[in-house]
Amino acid sequence: MIFGMTYYTFFHVLISLVGIVSGLAVLSGLLKSDRKDGWTLIFLVTTVATSLTGFGFPYQGFTPAIGVGIISVVFLAAAIVARYSFHLTGAWRWIYVVSAIISLYFNVFVLIAQSFQKIPALNALAPTGSEPPFAIAQGIVLVVFIIAGFGSLRKFHPNTD
Predict the structure, then answer these.
(1) What separation in angstroms does the CA of 77 have from each of 37, 121, 139?
(2) What angle do CA 4, 17, 35 make, to 5 degrees?
(3) Full residue range of the structural domain in which residue 101 is found
(4) Interval 115-121 mean pLDDT
């Protein structure tokens, strides 16, 4: 056990956090029309690993977490294909931007949901996840990602040589 987590859970959380930090670096690059090749590779690999390891937790039937994981894998696949197979040419530029940002958003969405479940001070504000503090936090993050997404679509025009 590490910090009260199994080794598997700790590994999942660790790669999730690396995915979020590297994803924020990638988002910063999108807003500056900088491809951030190294950060992008780290972001995509760790975010794929986060989604895939998420499927390894015990569950009974279909859960919202499984749904988010499936959707995330679809967007990650699109981002990877757009970035590495089609090299951001033509429509693949915006497909990459949208897919990468949605993938990062899902990671942050889950981070907030887990924070409200696991951090006592936040859990006291929203013990079931249906209270206003939880909705407000998720709403603010959604608005920030929508604004960042439109900004990235407008500004990200990398050299595709």
Answers:
(1) 17, 36, 26
(2) 170
(3) 7-155
(4) 93
The domain tally of the chain equals 1
pLDDT of residue 98: 98
Does 37 reside within a domain? yes
- Domain-embedded: residue 145: yes
pLDDT in tens, 96-112: 999 999 999 999 999 99
Read off the pLDDT of each residue in 66-91 and give the average, rounded to a whole number: 95
Is residue 40 in some structural domain?
Answer: yes
**Residue 153 CB-half CA count within 13 A:** 12
Q: Would you say the C-alpha torsion 62, 55, 52, 25 has a positive or negative sign?
A: positive
pTM listed for this prediction: 0.92
Residue 161 included in any domain: no
